[in-house]
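question for whoever is on the cluster today: can someone run the full assembly for these? two chains, 358 residues total. i dont have access anymore since they changed the login thing
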Amino acid sequence: MKRMIATLFLAGFLWIWPGVSDSLLAGSWPGVDEAVIEKVAEKAGRPAREPFINTDQGDLLLFVFLLAGIVGGFIGGYHFRALFPPRRSGEEKAEKGQPKEGGERARHAA
Amino acid sequence: MTRYSQRTALAVLTAAAVCLLPEAAFAMHISEGILPASWAVLWGALAIPFVAWGLRDLRRRSRNEPAFKPFVGLVGAAVFLISCMPIPIPTAGTCSHPCGTGLAAILIGPGLTVVVASIALTLQALFLAHGGLTTLGANILSMGVAGAYIGYGAYWIGRRLGLHVLAAAALAGVLSDWGTYAVTSLELASALHGGGSFSAMFSLILLAFVPTQIPLGLVEGALCAGALKFIRSRRPELLRSVSVGGVS
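^ ran it for u. tokens below:
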């Protein structure tokens, strides 16, 4: 229950954070690239250039994310078993302190 | 509600809240065109041996264990995601993001972390206008090389000094983040100080990073320790490859 409350509190905080911060500080929250790196570079006479591929146009960035999600999802799905192998029942029982399945049978067979 | 479903709900809600943030993605990498060509080439040349070493390490380790490659891919995806995640810092009024290289260095080693950071930075430069192609070498050197080796070194020293695994992981996260920004300052100061003093320029840039990066480094430390704790409790078998200092 405590965890659920903490979760809801955190989610709510993150959700309202931009509005609260904007109204309180009326700030634009620039990234440190803009606030530090680009400012220093401009003063030194080396302003940042437009990127070679500018995806920040309309919904193009969303499309890139969609494409990356599809490709990444298929690759992740293909290797899912290698990444997260299912636990064998023997391992689970061994963790609980019980004898492994087949252990008796293996002893009889021997 | 079971413990597992509570944790899942926590993860899903946190992810949803982060996704709903109506903020644009803010970067910290050195943007396109800022570095003069000679410096861009120099930083690129310095980064290449580390990437090559990492690729060699990947070949060697995946020969022994075929499932290692997908795991490296998974860690790479985490580094990509973490280094795209803007976090507002109220003390500074700016946004920045953690790097994830400290955590990656603990999980897969520093050599491979350089490789995954290089891939993440290349994709960000190509498709997200985050960093740049001409500044890729400098960004690999600061986030990939410095972040990975400083994080790995901090974890190793921490474990050797008898720190708990999570304390050592937190230390790795904090120092890898601060190390990344210190090297970024060094790169910028070297290239942009012109006729002025290098040390004055370096101090100026480093101090400008301080209000944002001091708290963000602490966040990264908590993130690193939290992620390692989660993996250790849920999927300890993923930590087989952790050679330095152990995780138990």
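summary bc i know u wont read the tokens: Chain B has one domain: 32-240. Chain B touches chain A through 63 residues (CB under 8 Å).
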